[in-house]
Amino acid sequence: MTTQPCQTGCGTPLTPDQERILRERGTEYPGSSPLNHEKRAGSYHCVGCGALLFRSTTKYESGSGWPSFWAAEAGGVATQRDTSHGMVRDEVHCAHCGGHLGHVFPDGPPPTGQRYCVNGLVLDFRPDA
Ligand SMILES: [Zn+2]
């Protein structure tokens, strides 16, 4: 696997773990992301292409061990039915570059009832100025 340069303008190459999640639908270890505890106002972007995916206003503590959101930015993500690992889930990926982000489950809080369970490693958090 080749390491592609980060296209968000940060100049930092994606790490092997980020590549594994984005391109091979990998999953980070639960509880491992510092973004689990990120409470600041800001926006969450795709590390693969820089697209806006989520905002801090929809982030909540799900207790799952992964950063969780009850809604995604309109047009930011797309979903696809995923029947791997003997489960029926809806896979979530970046609508712009197709990079895998995580899964969405129908057990989230109001108003949407959805839980976007996202790997923090593929989120680029940009705090509001
Ligand atoms: Zn992307």
From TrEMBL:
Assigned EC number: 1.8.4.12
Superkingdom as given in the UniProt entry: Bacteria
EC class: oxidoreductase
Gene Ontology molecular functions: peptide-methionine (R)-S-oxide reductase activity
Gene3D superfamilies noted in UniProt: Peptide methionine sulfoxide reductase
Reaction(s) catalysed by this chain's protein: L-methionyl-[protein] + [thioredoxin]-disulfide + H2O = L-methionyl-(R)-S-oxide-[protein] + [thioredoxin]-dithiol
PANTHER family: METHIONINE SULFOXIDE REDUCTASE, PEPTIDE-METHIONINE (R)-S-OXIDE REDUCTASE
Protein name as catalogued: peptide-methionine (R)-S-oxide reductase
Name of the coding gene: msrB
